[in-house]
Write a structure and sequence with these properties.
By secondary structure, the protein is an alpha/beta fold. The chain is built from five helices and nine strands. The termini are far apart.
Amino acid sequence: MAVPLVKFVRVARRARNRLRWAVMSDTLPRSPDGKRLLHIGCGSIDSPYFVNIDARRLPHVHFLINEILEIRFIPDASFDFVYMSHVLEHVPHQQTVDVLCQIQRILRPGGVCRLSVPDFDHLVSIYQHNDNDLERIIHPLMGGQDYRYNYHYGIFNHKLLSEQFAKAGFVNIRAWSPHDCAHHDFSDTSSLHINIKGKEFPVSLNLEADKP
């Protein structure tokens, strides 16, 4: 009986989100220049210009989903900007391109998808520079595994994520800096570093791309 119940809950959540979108879409936040911004996996971050989606029921979260592909309830070309930081690695690796295709679908032409993920190349460097100590990288590699959603199923480096962006139809794939970019008035895992014996090691791969 468990599988039908899970399916029922998923269908009910999708219907609820469609209804909430229909009711709320005209009153959802916008940036001062009128753009609609989406933060998927916002967690505790509440930037006032973003529409927030998360799996946790928090006061600032507009829509609850359990997996990213549930954003199918969002109509085509609804957003100018989509942001995810250290979220895509929580998606089964076979679904990464599907998720990026869904993000591409909900973006308007010229819209931007901005991502931050743990960078496998950075983690290898941390490992190699610290006596091959796996404990130094186990959390960013595998997730904290301290609650239901905090498990990692995918790994990324610049080459792989760029290829996946391209497969999903994105163009102008490029690096971005959390210290010098628009729509980033908060601190999050995109600027995460690991301090080992006084030395700072970067963790994140930060790439963004445009919908043609």
